[in-house]
Structures are given as C-alpha cells and as structure tokens.
Amino acid sequence: TTPPTQAGPTPEDKAKAKLQSAAVSCAPFPPPIEQATSQRLSIESGNGPDNFVLLVVDQTASGEQDFRWRVDRATGAFTPLDSLAQAASDHCSGLN
User: Fold this and answer.
1) pLDDT tens-digit readout, 54-73
2) Which of 3, 23, 47, 90 minimizes the number of CB atoms within 10 Å of its CB?
3) Which of 24, 6, 5, 28 lies closest to 16, judged by CA?
4) Is 85:70 a contact under the CB 8 Å cutoff?
C-alpha cells in the first residue's frame, strides 16, 4: 500500500505567512514605506520552477505601493526585487 501523503502548507502559503508575521512584528515601517489601509497579496511565476514572486500591493492614503520579492521554493528565502521591498527587508530581518 502507498502511505498517505501529508498535505501541508505549500511554499506559497508559507511565504504569505512569513510575510504577514514579519509585517506584524516589524511594524511600523520607516519611510518611504507608508502605512497601508488595505493589502492584496498575489503570487506570480518566477524565472524558473525553483522560485516564484510574491507581490504585495498596499493601498495607502496617497495611493498604492507595490513590493515584490523572489521566493526560493526550497528555502523560503526572500530576495527583494524593487526598492520598497529592499527597504522593508532592510528594516525587518523576517523579510529575508
């Protein structure tokens, strides 16, 4: 017989949880990051099967701000892909 497969969180689920945990523990973030009034998370394909891009769009009082990280599927490591993601990762070690 085949042993039952254990359904656990996907790498994408783990990345979203890591992001949300870091955002709570590291708030407030310094400028240029503005306080978000709402947030959307989405997953985009990466530059190969070993990674994906986590996109965060924050709605702020003055508009939207986008953050993009490349996430390694095996390790869960975040690599900032833009200046806002870099600023967030510099401020918060949980976003690395």
Assistant:
1) 999 999 999 999 999 999 99
2) 3
3) 24
4) no
Pair of tokens at residue 73 = 């599927």
Tokens of 37: 């009034």
Q: Is the dihedral of CA 26, 28, 32, 37 positive or negative?
A: positive
Q: What gap in Å lies between CA 78 and CA 50, rounded to an integer?
A: 13
Helices (H) and strands (E) in the chain, counts: 2, 4
Task: Determine contact, residues 67/88, Cβ cutoff 8 Å.
Answer: yes
Across-strand partners of 71? 52, 78
Which of 2, 3, 30, 89 has the alpha carbon at shortest distance from 54? 89
**Which pLDDT belongs to residue 4?**
57
Q: What is the DSSP track for 38-74?
A: EEEEEEEE-SSTTEEEEEEEEEETTEEEEEEEEEETT
